[in-house]
Amino acid sequence: MTMTEDRPSGTRARHPVRWIATVALVVVAGLVAVLATRPPASVAEVDSPLLGNLAPTLSGTTLSGSPFVLPSRPGHYVVVNFFASWCEPCRQEGPQLVRFAFEHSRTNDAQLVSVVFDDTDSSASAYQAQLGATWPTLRADGALALSYGVRAPPTTFVIAPDGRLAAEVIAPVTASDLDQVIATVKARRP
Questions:
Q1: Is 147 exposed, middle or buried (0-12, 13-18, 19+ CB in 10 A)?
Q2: pLDDT, tens digit, for every residue of 2-29?
């Protein structure tokens, strides 16, 4: 009798399945370990042809019906956030924008302005009210989005105190992301 005749008929087939399952488990465990121990990704600024130039004029009517015009040289940093109420990443960053606006309202060194992108005023207004937004929110204006080159929300810009466009971010941002972007912009400027 040979070795193969001593084994029951399905034993040989089970070993490769065990090996494959073990290898798959090791690979999955390795991926989990890598993802769990890597440092968090920082927000990445986008290289825009607008950077370094005077920011496009930021003016319009707010959701509350008031006129709004950002001075060409605002004298402080201005964060311009294009958003939509239907945009899930925008909803993720919303509470962080509230935090950023609150923290900087005390020091008056940065201002937040939102611009509705491809949304109805009523939906955007309801979302901003639910969020507790207290900063100016401009009504949807395709020309304004076009002048900034916005293709989709959320897109955020940082305007320097001298009115130049200093940064663009195409991703949800946190309050600390915005603080880091402003710190980086300050470090680059004389």
A1: middle
A2: 555 555 555 555 667 676 766 666 655 5
